[in-house]
Amino acid sequence: MAEKINGKTRTCGLIGNPVEHTLSPVIHNNLAEKTGKNLVYVPFHVEPDGLENAVKGAYGLNILGMNVTVPYKTDVMNYLVEIDEEARAIGAVNTLVRVQGGYKGYNTDISGLHRGMLSDGVKISKEAVIILGAGGAGKAVARLCAAEGAEKVYLLNRSVEKAEALAASVNKEFEREIIVPLGISEFGKIEEDSCLAIQTTSVGLHPDSDKSPIEDTVFFKKIHTAIDIIYKPAETRFMKLTRENGGKAYNGLKMLLYQGIIAYELWNGIEVEEDTAGWIYGLLKKELGIHE
Ligand code: ATR
């Protein structure tokens, strides 16, 4: 790569803490190569008291765009000149796009999840959906399901109060009693026998790979398709239990892939073709040691 950097090279990057294990450079530097853009993507480890300086400094350095990861997806919203409507509703920004005077914030995590689901032929419309988790990710997924016309959404969370508050807010926004809040052990109240499940809690994440937020077979018998937004391990225990009970299961690697692709499209004003997306997906799997 070094020999290709010249006076016209543009820079994009990632702001977070930690950033040392990120796979985003694999996505963007290979996309740049494939789409013929003179662009490099680098990680920036930012200390908590340095976020404002990082965003302003990036603008000063003519940086084209940034991704933002944990723990700054909400705080970064304080330092932007504009925020996309969807990102504002979700309450989190993971992509900064250079505009006049600063950066505009977007959320490509959720559009990325949706595009990944479409690429696997998984639909939300008219489905009975079970969402596990009522944190930031659970909230965004609940809004996606409401917007995409799910029939009904059961929102299961360890602390039921959080599920109730989130359900009330989404139901109000969409003017429909679509989200039904439940405690995590109340899955017996789910009326439907064939549901799409989206797992958004951190349970089962490497190195706690032997854990699932629910273990009961009765629950998994209700799932025709499960998506776990975790991609490490490539098969979470939640996915394994789904498969053992006859359902299909997908991990969060497509979400990671497409959040990156959508960010790249926003920065460069181009559309990335599916063949290219598939090629990057293969590189990500190789990077993670996934052979299937
Ligand atoms: P994110 O932004 O990734 O969604 P978060 O806002 O910290 O992260 O939310 C984490 C989610 O994982 C929550 O739904 C949390 O449940 P609580 O609201 O009850 O805390 C869920 N979670 C974390 N650890 C869990 C565990 N051991 N069992 C069940 N749920 C868990």
Concise summary:
By secondary structure, the protein is an alpha/beta fold. It has helices at residues 24-35, 51-60, 85-90, 108-119, 136-147, 160-174, 217-220, 237-244, 253-268, 274-287; strands at residues 10-16, 39-45, 65-68, 82-83, 95-99, 102-106, 128-132, 152-157, 179-183, 195-199, 223-228, 248-250. The strands form 2 sheets. Strands 2-1-3-5-6-4 form a 6-stranded mixed β-sheet, with helices on both faces. A 6-stranded parallel β-sheet has the order 9-8-7-10-11-12, with helices on both faces.
Helical proportion? 25-40%
Q: Give the strand line-up of the largest sheet.
A: 2-1-3-5-6-4
The major beta sheet can be summarized as: 6 strands, mixed
- β-strand amount: 15-25%
What ligands are attached or bound here? 2'-monophosphoadenosine-5'-diphosphate
Query: Spans of 5+ residues with little confidence (pLDDT < 50)?
Result: none
Give the oligomeric state.
Answer: single chain
Structural class: alpha/beta
Shape: globular
On the 0 to 100 scale, the average pLDDT is 97
Helices and strands, in order, run as: EHEHEEHEEHEHEHEEHEHEHH
Radius of gyration (Å): 19 Å
Supply the number of helical segments. 10
Beginning-to-end CA distance, first to last residue: 29 Å
Topology, number of strands = 12
What keywords describe this structure?
six-stranded mixed β-sheet; six-stranded parallel β-sheet; 292 residues; alpha/beta; binds 2'-monophosphoadenosine-5'-diphosphate; single chain; globular
Please characterize this protein's 3D structure.
By secondary structure, the protein is an alpha/beta fold. Helices cover 37% and strands 21% of the residues. A six-stranded mixed sheet has the order 2-1-3-5-6-4, sandwiched between helices. It has a six-stranded parallel sheet with strand order 9-8-7-10-11-12, sandwiched between helices. The radius of gyration is 19 Å and the shape is globular. The structure holds 2'-monophosphoadenosine-5'-diphosphate. 2'-monophosphoadenosine-5'-diphosphate (ATR) binds next to helix 5.
